Each structure stands twice: as C-alpha cells, then as structure tokens.
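Researcher: We're teaching a course module on how sequence relates to structure. For the next exercise, students receive a sequence and then see the predicted structure as tokens, so they can try to spot secondary structure elements on their own. Here is the exercise chain.
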Amino acid sequence: ISVLDACVSMASLAECKSIHANIVDSGLESHVVLGTAIVSMYGRCGNPEDARRVFDRMTQRDVISWNAIIAAYAQNGKDKEALEIFCEMQLKGLKPDRVTFISILDACARGSTLAEGKVIHAIIVESEFKSDAVVGSALVNMYG
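Model: And here is the predicted structure for the students to work with:
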C-alpha cells in the first residue's frame, strides 16, 4: 500500500499501472484493503475510470471502498458519477459515514448538483453526523 502512495506522490501513472499489473498477477487485487488502495490511487492520479474498473472487480467492498470510489469521481470533477455511486451505495444497504458525506458534498459544491446536495443535507440532518463540525464545514462550502 505504501508503494501505491509513493506512486501518487511521484505522479507517475505509468508506474502505478505497472505496480497494479503486478498486484493483479499475484491475485491480490480483490483483497478489500489492497483493492481500495488501488481505487484511491487511480482517483488521486486523475483516472476515475480505472478506479471504477478496479472497484467493479472487487469481490468484497466496505464503506471505505465506496468512499474511495466516490472520492475518485468527486476529486476529478465527475460530480454526477459520484452522486450515482453514492445512491448505489445506499441501495446496497451501506450506511454513509463522515468521509462519505464530505466527499459527496464536495461533488455537490460545484453547483450543477446543488439540488441533490440539498437532499443529502436532509439525510445528514437525520443522521448521527448532523452536529459533526467537519461535515458542517462541507455543508457551508457546498452552499457557498
């Protein structure tokens, strides 16, 4: 996992893809922690499409995996896709956590998805995160 972080730090997508290929060859890509790290790596390298391919091949996913794929799209300006994945996460029965809300509110902050952001705000009000300062800051940022 630290090797993947180093790739992102060096901004070497080609090197990251090479390491990813080695992980695939070793049969470890479907491991939830390693798969999530790869999803995050591709997102931070500006490649949410490859992040999604890895995510879709993961046999196990947890809320952290879902957060990684939502962030991969949100960080790269793919707001509608991030929202679609957020909805998919909820349909699968996973409960959003603090990181989920921060990432999805970031996607909603760019304006084209403000209506959806208001719906997410309503979800937050009904959740345990309604008094969370960091989530509150993300809401302030969304409303501008």
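Model: If you want an answer key for the exercise: The chain has a mean pLDDT of 89. Residues 13-26 form the longest helix (14 residues).
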